[in-house]
Design brief:
The chain has 136 residues and is of the alpha+beta class. 28% of the residues lie in helices and 28% in strands.
C-alpha cells in the first residue's frame, strides 16, 4: 500500500469543512494528523481487520492523544506540507512538543485553523468549487 502525500494534502485541502462536520454532529473529538509513510495490511482469520502500521502512524496517534477536544492537532511535518501545497489556507498555533518515547523521538505540534481571511475569487475555503493549485 503506497499513499502519495501530495494527493492526500490536496484532498485534505479540498475536503468539505471537517471542523464544521464534527461540530454539527455534536461530536467532541480530537483529531491528530501526521504526514509520513505507513504500511497497511489485513490481519486475522476469524475476525479480519485492516490496519495501518509504522512509525508515522504512531506519531499521528500521539498527535491525536495530545490534542484538544474539538480541535485538529497536526505535526510540524504536516504543517510544512500544508504551507507548501495550500499556502494561505490555514493558520497554525503552536501547541507544544509531542514525544513518542518508544521511538525516542519528539516533534512540534500545532493546532490547525481555517484562515478566515483566505478567499479565492470570493469562494469559501471549504466550498465544493474550491480549486487546488499546485506550487510552480
Amino acid at each position: 500500500f503506497f499513499f502519495q502525500a501530495e494527493d492526500g494534502i490536496r484532498d485534505f485541502c479540498l475536503s468539505r469543512g471537517l471542523g464544521d462536520v464534527y461540530k454539527r454532529q455534536g461530536l467532541d473529538m480530537r483529531i491528530g494528523i501526521h504526514t509520513g509513510e505507513c504500511i497497511g495490511g489485513v490481519i486475522g482469520t476469524d475476525i479480519v481487520r485492516y490496519d495501518f502500521y509504522g512509525k508515522d502512524v504512531l506519531i499521528a496517534n500521539k498527535m491525536e492523544s495530545n490534542g484538544v477536544e474539538g480541535k485538529i492537532h497536526i505535526s510540524e511535518t504536516t504543517k510544512n506540507m500544508l504551507q507548501r501545497y495550500c499556502p494561505g489556507m490555514f493558520r497554525f498555533d503552536y501547541h507544544g512538543m509531542v514525544e513518542a518515547k518508544s521511538l525516542n523521538f519528539s516533534i512540534e505540534g500545532y493546532m490547525l485553523y481555517e484562515n478566515e481571511s483566505y478567499h479565492e475569487e470570493g469562494q469559501e475555503l471549504f466550498s465544493a468549487k474550491a480549486t487546488f493549485k499546485p506550487p510552480k
